[in-house]
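Lab manual, section 2.4: Encoding a predicted structure.

Procedure: take the sequence of the chain (321 residues), apply the prediction step described in section 2.3, and record the output as structure tokens. A sample record is shown.
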Amino acid sequence: MELYNLNKENLEEVNLVPFKLEKDIQALVEKNTESIFELEFIESEFRVEKYRIDTLCFDPENNSFVIVEYKKGSSYSVVDQGMTYLQLMLNNKADFLLMLSQHKGKVLEMKDVDWSQSKIIFVAESFNSYQKDSVNFDNLPFELWEIKRFTNNTIVFNKHKSNSKESIGSLTDSKKNNAFSEINKEVKVYTEQDSTSKTNADVLEKWEELKELMIELTDTELTPKKGYISLDLDYKNKIVAYFNFQKSGIRMDFSRGNLYPDGSTSKNYFTLDDPKGIAKEGSWTYKSETKGNVYKVSIFKDTDIDYIMFLIKQKYKNLRQ
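Recorded output:
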């Protein structure tokens, strides 16, 4: 792929500028964890036992820890290191909880963290085919993100997507299987089936119809999570819609945004155009008196899916601005 900067009517070639040091990538990401990953930065160079974690973050949406590791070169196994760090976290929960308590400025308990949603993110300028194939399973809580820097000060993050339906349990490497079996007792990577299993067949037909339309949206991905499935806008790491599955229907939520005490609103504050009036508004108030707002839409077996897509596309376009 060739990149150019448009200067009036002239195209100027944009070249790749490699990072000299792993620390350069780390410094950039740590200053921008919220913008890139929607994560809270907790601590840099966090030491536990004999190990040093590059960056410790917290996922406020899932109430879980996320470890970010940075790499130069390709002479390492992401699976081996990922499993080691997950085991380290699960065996030293008190250390991680103490660090989070200090960051939050209040005493937290074990129940305040969802350890089952723990995750490892690897960031590098590139990953070789072996590394990508090694995480190509549907139940590994690891993510690979490639970072590129260009001469026009553009930074590009690209997430490697697994397209496999295989479990790591299908590996012939018994050592890795045994290690992951121990981790899997506490860490859970959710699948679509976890959400849809309790929903009746008629509603699931509507879901399949909706999925076919949603996958046509550029730069989106359906991500199963604990209790729901989200439609994510990949390149901005934003959520377009949340889908909560019930027996006789699906509740689709759009985050409208925050209304602050001074009357101002958060970026991309959203107003839904809903001629049929099927969306219900919901809200809650934080301790800061900021008001969070959401639209709730119910999908049943007789719902017009084209109209649902009309609503989804509004939020999709709003986030792409």
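Check your result against the sample. The chain has two domains: 4-184, 192-320.
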